[in-house]
Amino acid sequence: MRVSRLMLVTLRDTPADAEIASHQLLVRGGFIKRVTSGIYAYMPLMWRVIKKITAIVQQELDKKGCLESLLPQLHPAEIWEQSGRWKGYTAGEGIMFHLKDRQGRELGLGPTHEEVITKIAGEILQSYKQLPVTIYQIQTKFRDEIRPRFGLMRSREFIMKDAYSFHSNEEDLKNKYVEMNDAYTKIFKRCGITTVAVDADSGAIGGAESREFMVTADAGEDLILISTDNKYAANQEKALSIPIGKECLPKKESKTIDTVGQSSIKELCQNNSFAPSQIVKVILLLALIEDNIQQPILISIRGDQELNEVKLSNEISKYLEKNVINLKIISKDQLEINGLNEIPFGYLGPDLEDSYLDKANNNWENYFLRFIDHTAASLDSFICGSNVYNQHRIYTNWSSIGRQGEVVDIRKAIAGDIALHDKNAKLIEKRGIEIGHIFQLGRKYSKSLNAFFTNESGLQEPFWMGCYGIGISRLAQAAIEQNHDKEGILWPLAIAPFEIIVVIANMKDEKQRALGEEIYEELIKEGIDALIDDRDERAGVKFKDADLIGIPWKVIAGRDSTEGKVELINRATKISRLLQFKDAIKELISEISKSR
RNA sequence: CGGGGCGUGGCGCAGUUUGGUAGCGCGGGUGCUUUGGGAGCACUAGGUCGCAGGUUCGAAUCCUGUCGCCCCGACCA
Q1: Coil, helix or strand at residue A295
Q2: What pLDDT, in 10s, does the model give residues A462-475?
Q3: Complex-level ipTM
Q4: Is the confidence at residue A35, as pLDDT, over 90?
Q5: CA–C1' distance A473–B36 (Å)?
Q6: Which CATH class is domain A255-408?
Q7: pTM score, two decimals?
Q8: Are A235 and A211 in contact (CB under 8 A)?
Q9: Cα–Cα nearest to A358, from A350, A349, A368
Q10: Distance A296 CA to B70 C1' (A)
Q11: Distance, Å, A537 CA → B38 C1'
């Protein structure tokens, strides 16, 4: 391809609406054009990158016997109603774009494809003899994100690879999960990006085990915790660990003390020389449960710990066996609306009585669902609110206040915590961009969508399912976030739009021009993805553009063309060599075939 | 949805406080010079100042409404 014909427009100024480096570089390099919030056009250079990533994904999945397909983007509401996700995804979270056709039938634009594929699999796969099967598609998906941001990182229309596997038993699913884990590791390695695989929360999609593949980068939206011995890594939403900093409170006779105006842990500690870890903090939340039930939640946690709302939400779901649509700390406004303003905020104890909820309306349940984090449950002697304004209890314990509620892990793991598997290992934190996620779904979708097969005993049974996603467009941008410098992008060779760019320094010099063209022709003949900058621009402009768009290799046909010599420069290392042009070609062919 | 900010040629911005014929840089076109790290000079094209009302002799500027975009938060298979 010739740069003069490439429709390439690069920007010298940083676009005002791009915040992070990768987004800025994509826009400056002319890779993407925003059409509206969270919706982008992939321009020719970008599309080449996407196709290269896609090819790697296809090759590695095909090696594992996966089948490629293409599924519809428009999904009938019925199958989403069947899986129980229509309401939550349209009205509730509102993440699904939806519309009505001319007959008034409701349709949604697919944010993911569990429903469609499970429905199809249920009809086609009738016998255990046809299993296992893994089917995938790479296509545009839609999510009406609450806040699209960072270009392709969180866009509303994006390209994703989704694979779904169907099995006759759990063992087989687990094997596939391991196999896919292996495929993913290979895919990301081939794409030239560094990833960390972390234990993850499976979120609204449900299922047993799940693992995310994170590109480590400061701009990442997720916080991940990694043990110093590298044996454990998890998303903070999921991470398990042992907190440090516990200061025991001696066991003494329990009493009530006046704590006027000391409604926060900080004030309480400052005025009475307590340590936060000696206090049991009580937090009141409201969970919106499916079927529009508002469930008040009362949690107790050690005063120096933070609540992990994802863990709590999962515990609530598990306990009630219903989906939690939303979870929020109860605000004073909500209490006033519900006539509950006498709840002694700032002085709550774990034994706050349910009778406070007697007057609650607006679908509120009139009891507290209670959870105690194990950090609080394991305290033998502690300080807590007395459920009366301006008073706390000290030296109290669970047997005297009467322990109510489930003891669970709902604390937020943080850097500095001790790893569960080895007390000498500590957790450190990094930020990550999620580009892949694999799940053992189990039978949730096959059950709800009536996707059954006949097992060896002749009985009908729902499939065991796995699902495995890769954000293709997000991966492309994450690769830049991880690989760039002041001058521009440093594409890993395997996913670069072109492998090498031939720069003719001065188009008016016949020798340079002829040499550049000859090298270009030769490289194309050798099957190298070569680009030639044949624009009648000054050399500096072409160098700047080549660096900005991040082509891994650059060959300059310039001053030394008279002697048949060219400069060969590696974009990432900046190492430059003056070589006879034939040697430069040989060198390039060997370097490129080495790393693709 | 809450908080904050911004809409002025393709891009980045000034002008708005204090109303008076719309400007700068980059980019585009033509010509001359220059030619290895985003060249110089000259000329030139390109804008209903997001949109709709209103106030005024006169609105980019003031008022009302509305739409869009960005940031923080909530939220986020």
Answers
A1: strand
A2: 999 999 999 999 99
A3: 0.92
A4: no
A5: 36
A6: alpha beta
A7: 0.93
A8: no
A9: A368
A10: 36
A11: 10
How far is Cα A504 from Cα A543, in angstroms, rounded to an integer?
Answer: 10
- The full set of domain ranges for chain A reads 3-73+110-240+429-480, 255-408, 498-594
DSSP string of A260-290? TT--SHHHHHHHHT--GGGBEEEEEEEEEEG
Nucleotide nearest to A556 (CA to C1'): B36
Q: Which residue is nearest to nucleotide B38 (CA to C1')?
A: A541
Residue at shortest CA–C1' distance from B37: A540
Q: What is the CA A303 to C1' B52 distance in angstroms? A: 55
Q: What is the pLDDT of residues A285-333, one digit of tens each?
A: 888 887 778 899 999 999 999 999 889 988 998 898 887 878 888 766 6
| A40 Cβ contact partners less than 8 Å away, ≥ 6 residues apart | A32, A33, A34, A151, A152, A155, A157
**Residue pair A476/A470 in contact by the 8 Å Cβ criterion:** no
**A3-73+110-240+429-480, CATH topology level:** BirA Bifunctional Protein; domain 2 (3.30.930)
Nucleotides of B under 7 A from a protein CB: 1, 11-13, 25-27, 34-39, 68-77
Query: Whose CA is nearest the C1' atom of nucleotide B12?
Result: A13
- Which strands form A500-504's sheet, in the order they lie side by side? A530-533, A500-504, A553-557, A565-570, A576-580
CATH level 3 topology of A498-594: Rossmann fold (3.40.50)
Provide, in whole angstroms, the distance separating residue A16's CA from nucleotide B19's C1': 30
Residue–nucleotide distance: A41 CA to B23 C1' (Å): 33
What percentage of chain A exceeds 70 in pLDDT? 97
